[in-house]
Amino acid sequence: xxxxxxxxxxxxxxxxxxxxxxxxxxxxxxxxxxxxxxxxxxxxxxxxxxxxxxxxxxxxxxxxxxxxxxxxxxxxxxxxxxxxxxxxxxxxxxxxxxxxxxxxxxxxxxxxxxxxxxxxxxxxxxxxxxxxxxxxxxxxxxxxxxxxxxxxxxxxxxxxxxxxx
Length: 165
Description:
Elements: E1 15-19, H1 27-38, E2 44-48, E3 59-63, H2 66-76, E4 80-81, E5 84-85, E6 87-90, H3 96-102, H4 113-116, H5 128-132, H6 153-164
Antiparallel strand pairs: 1-3, 1-6, 2-3, 4-5
């Protein structure tokens, strides 16, 4: 098995963070397979895996006790799982389930995605008067220039006649 890298000192935790998982496997199948593998090493309280782009190829396994998590990390580090070697670390923070059991759970504030990105407006929220005046920030053109003028076929013919005279 591969050696555990100790670049960061993360304290022992009942929650294991697993990455380098095969992203092509469906979430339900991934959870079932992970449960089958890790349940042999201790009682699992919960397992988290998401299909969002940010969380693909990652999972969190929450064990009932720290010894099971230590054993799982040591035995399963580098284990080939769906043609990829698992990388396992202790989670940086306690899981919500563990925090609730310890009595130290504090709900997190939900983040607003649009506030994170600098408060960008959605297309529906743009002022229609801006679009008519070519002040629409959605299309600023190259270096803030106005969009090119689109000629109709009749105007194009007139322009070509004047060029050939």
